[in-house]
């Protein structure tokens, strides 16, 4: 079997579909016409960043927006902010008194690129941006009993090797019926690639993602859907 790694620096080539034209078709037909203006602005401002490929894909963002609405999300948490595309779409979707705990080890890209657009969109008051590793923030939240079962929605888009550690803690913080979305659960298609053909820089993420996918599939606490949007997203709904 031939294995192709798609170049991820261009959003038109971000998907895992059979052709880039088909992905472009989805974006132009169904995603861009409905993308809100501040999100368009942030996507354009992020495009010149040397790591622009890290931003959440707009089609995955559109699904996230729907999920946030379906659970009527008011209290959410996000790991991995970068310039803030997923954060801004969450802030634009939840109600005026909604709150987002957003965590990133490095807030530079957020401060320089995302924050001015978020301020202009009038949604900064919903965001509590914490510059930190994700794990200590989760452990701190769990020290306060009132946080248990209190989150409606979580989006996890940070260091792939820790996703299962995040999941164990999120199972306590999420409401029954709440949703956690994991990004990059196909890790550029490497999950089906022989290890020796996987680029060195993707090997650790590949192994962690393969293990995560098996663990999520066997986890009776959640209902799951593994969707091939963007770089693969897995939607988990806490059921007990
Ligand atoms: C893929 S980007 C996030 C993209 C973002 N969701 C968006 O929509 O643009 C991953 C981010 O995770 C952050 N990150 C990496 N390891 C982390 C960790 N252990 N804890 C918190 N953030 C981390 C990185 O600094 C980076 O900004
Ligand atoms: O190319 C990447 C890299 C990451 C990444 C790598 C290491 C970390 O500790 C965190 C994130 O994440 C990405 C991502 O989420 C994406 O959608 C595309 C590309 C990358």
UniProtKB/TrEMBL annotation:
GO terms (BP aspect): methylation
Annotated GO MF terms: O-methyltransferase activity; S-adenosylmethionine-dependent methyltransferase activity
Protein origin, superkingdom: Eukaryota
SUPFAM superfamilies recorded: S-adenosyl-L-methionine-dependent methyltransferases (SSF53335)
Keyword terms, alphabetized: Methyltransferase, S-adenosyl-L-methionine, Transferase
Keyword Repressor attributed: no
InterPro entries from the UniProt entry: Cation-dep_OMT (IPR050362), SAM-dependent_MTases_sf (IPR029063), SAM_O-MeTrfase (IPR002935)
This protein's record includes keyword Methyltransferase: yes
Family statement: Belongs to the class I-like SAM-binding methyltransferase superfamily. Cation-dependent O-methyltransferase family.
Annotated function: Methylates caffeoyl-CoA to feruloyl-CoA and 5-hydroxyferuloyl-CoA to sinapoyl-CoA. Plays a role in the synthesis of feruloylated polysaccharides. Involved in the reinforcement of the plant cell wall. Also involved in the responding to wounding or pathogen challenge by the increased formation of cell wall-bound ferulic acid polymers.
Protein name: Caffeoyl-CoA O-methyltransferase
Organism: Prunus armeniaca
């Amino acid at each position: 079997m031939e294995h192709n790694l798609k170049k991820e620096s261009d959003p038109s080539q971000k998907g895992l579909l059979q052709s880039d034209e088909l992905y472009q078709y989805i974006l132009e037909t169904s995603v861009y016409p409905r993308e809100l203006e501040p999100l368009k602005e942030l996507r354009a401002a992020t495009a010149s960043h040397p790591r622009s490929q890290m931003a959440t894909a707009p089609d995955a963002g559109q699904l996230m927006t729907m999920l946030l609405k379906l659970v009527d999300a008011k209290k959410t948490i996000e790991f991995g902010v970068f310039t803030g595309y997923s954060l801004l779409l969450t802030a634009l979707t939840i109600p005026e008194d909604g709150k987002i705990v957003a965590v990133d080890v490095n807030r530079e890209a957020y401060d320089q690129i995302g924050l001015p657009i978020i301020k202009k969109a009038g949604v900064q008051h919903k965001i509590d941006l914490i510059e930190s590793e994700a794990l200590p923030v989760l452990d701190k939240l769990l020290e306060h009993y009132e946080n248990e079962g209190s989150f409606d929605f979580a989006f996890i888009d940070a260091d792939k090797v820790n996703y299962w550690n995040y999941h164990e803690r999120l199972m306590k913080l999420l409401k029954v019926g709440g949703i956690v979305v994991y990004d990059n659960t196909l890790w550029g298609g490497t999950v089906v690639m022989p290890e020796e053909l996987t680029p060195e820089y993707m090997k650790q993420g590949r192994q962690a993602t393969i293990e995560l996918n098996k663990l999520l599939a066997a986890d009776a606490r959640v209902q799951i859907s593994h969707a091939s949007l963007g770089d693969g997203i897995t939607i988990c709904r806490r059921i007990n």
